[in-house]
Amino acid sequence: MPRSKNKVASRARRKKVLKLAKGNFGRRKNVWTVAVNTVEKGFSHAYDGRKLKKREFRALWIQRINAATRLHGMTYSTFMDKLKKNNITLDRKALAEIAFSDADGFKAIVDKVK
Question: How far is CA 15 from CA 11, 28, 45, in A?
Fold first, then answer.
């Protein structure tokens, strides 16, 4: 009896990888061996990017809060310290959004902790 190779499944596997490689230039999009390497590297970059995204957004929030607090004569570190001492539990994301979109509301928070 001849060996069964199951061409349907192997073709489907290859099509799945080539579909993920779509948009690349040259052989990276349509040659199997090159496309596999491209897709695997893309997955590793995507994994790293999900971790970096969190780091970069936190840094952005801190910069926005720092800029807004300096307008009111205070530094970021003293502002965050006074927030904790006054038991105001707003996270950096919320504080940055308030500082960015509602300047009067942020001024009220700064006045409360001073």
Answer: 6, 14, 22
Task: Give the distance between the most distant pair of CA atoms in the chain.
Answer: 86
For the stretch 13-22, pLDDT in tens is: 999 999 999 9
Query: What's residue 68's pLDDT?
Result: 97
Is residue 77 a part of any domain in this protein? yes
- Global pTM? 0.78
In total, how many domains does the chain have?
Answer: 1
97 in a structural domain: yes
